[in-house]
Amino acid sequence: GENVGLHLPTLSVQEGDNSIINCAYSNSASDYFIWYKQESGKGPQFIIDIRSNMDKRQGQRVTVLLNKTVKHLSLQIAATQPGDSAVYFCAEGFTGGFKTIFGAGTRLFVKA
Amino acid sequence: DAGVIQSPRHEVTEMGQEVTLRCKPISGHDYLFWYRQTMMRGLELLIYFNNNVPIDDSGMPEDRFSAKMPNASFSTLKIQPSEPRDSAVYFCASSLKGGNTEAFFGQGTRLTVV
Q1: From CA B107, how far away is CA B15, in angstroms rounded?
Q2: Is it the case that residue A2 has pLDDT exceeding 60?
Q3: Where residue A1 falls among pLDDT bands split at 50, 70, 90?
Q4: DSSP of B42-105
Q5: Whether the Cβ atoms of residue A64 and residue A35 lie closer than 8 Å to each other
Q6: Lowest mean pLDDT: which of A25-29, B5-9, B71-75?
Q7: What does pLDDT average to over chain A?
Q8: Is B48 on the interface with A (CB under 8 A)?
Q9: Computed from CA positions of residues A48, A52, A54, A55, in that sequence, does the dihedral angle turn out positive or negative?
Q10: What is the predicted pLDDT for the residue at A16?
């Protein structure tokens, strides 16, 4: 069949607005979640993480929310800047496990 | 620490040739991961090591792919013979404790097989 590329979900926001990127994770046993940011030509870079004993964690301009009931994770970026334009990946892992599983990613465009 | 170091940054090779990608993890990290990223499949985990021992190579696409970690500071991913469909960006990452700690990624090697 014809090959098609991965169509990443895309979020376009105005500079200065808040961004919310969502992610559904797959494994009920996962107890550790990470958000990574990947800029063009670079490897994924850690932004923030959260463990399953928490619902919310805040960093500098970023907040991660975890809803274990519906296996949903979100990343909120406050006052989005052009430098935030990138692909954002959520990843899940679990205590005692060896690896993290990456989601497909969401592309964030920030309009000046 | 300089972070995870990969070489080369770019590699262009002809179909059928052997390709070797190299990685130096962060000192003290017990886990090393090799990923492949393409537009078609996103970020795929190929293989990972714990204390230099391969733990899970189920992501390695074919026998043409092999990986080694002869010591704690060096790993290689080899493709022999290479094919055009192997063209991708290959990332190496290391982490302190595996699945419940963050992974640190290198800059990647962009491989083009013509």
Answers
A1: 24
A2: no
A3: very low
A4: EEEEEEEEETTEEEE-TT--STTEEEEEEETTEEEEEESS--GGG-EEEEEEEESSSTTS-EEE
A5: yes
A6: A25-29
A7: 90
A8: yes
A9: positive
A10: 97
Does the distance separating the beta carbons of A49 and B43 come in below 8 Å?
no
Compute the distance between CA of residue B55 and CA of residue B61 in angstroms, rounded to an integer. Answer: 16
Mean pLDDT of A10-16: 96
Average pLDDT over all residues of chain B? 94
- Across the interface, whether the CB atoms of B42 and A102 are under 8 A apart is answered yes
Instruction: Say yes or no for a CB contact (<8 Å) between A42 and B103.
Output: no
Q: Which residue of A has its CA nearest to B106?
A: A43
> B52: which 2 tokens?
């230099």
CA nearest A100: which of A21, A44, A20? A44
Residues of chain B numbered 92-111 and touching chain A (CB < 8 Å): 93, 98-108
Q: Write the pLDDT tens digit of every residue in A85-101.
A: 999 999 998 877 777 78
Residues 6+ apart with CB under 8 A from A59: A47, A48
Say if the Cβ atoms of A105 and B42 lie within 8 Å.
yes
